[in-house]
Amino acid sequence: MNVLRNSVRLIGNLGDVPKVRKLDSGKKVANFSIATSEVYYDQSGKKVSETTWHRLVAWGKQADIAENYLRKGSEVAVEGKLTNRSYDNKNGDKSYITEVVVGSMLLLGKRTDKE
Predict the structure, then answer these.
(1) Which of helix, strand or coil describes residue 17?
(2) Which keywords describe this protein according to UniProt (predicted)?
């Protein structure tokens, strides 16, 4: 059986337009976040809605797609792998971040014109 050891699939909505930049090498990278929501009923029967934000990074062709088609509120399905990295924040302290590196993306919902 073929099993992907580090794979994640998410369907959510963009919180803002992707931030796209071109590296010195000429390769593009896009950073954006999506929100996923879960609705359930707690023990008392009260309806509870929880939203989780996920940071995503797309490279190359996926960055082009993000730049040209994704808008704030866009619904998207992504598949990729989880990565962890660290950096030194403004105070000089080490901070850690978990991101999804996008392998594939499917645009959901209706098509909208570029703003």
Answers:
(1) coil
(2) DNA-binding
The candidate with the shortest Cα–Cα distance to 102, out of 3, 9, 17, 12, is: 9
CATH topology (fold) of 8-40+48-108: OB fold (Dihydrolipoamide Acetyltransferase, E2P) (2.40.50)
How open is the CA angle 115-15-97, to the nearest 5 degrees?
130
Longest Cα separation, the chain: 56
Can you give the pTM of this predicted structure?
0.82
Pair of tokens at residue 72: 């704030």
CA proximity to 65, closest of 105, 12, 108: 105
Distances (CA, A) of 67 to 17, 43, 47, 99, 104: 8, 43, 36, 18, 14
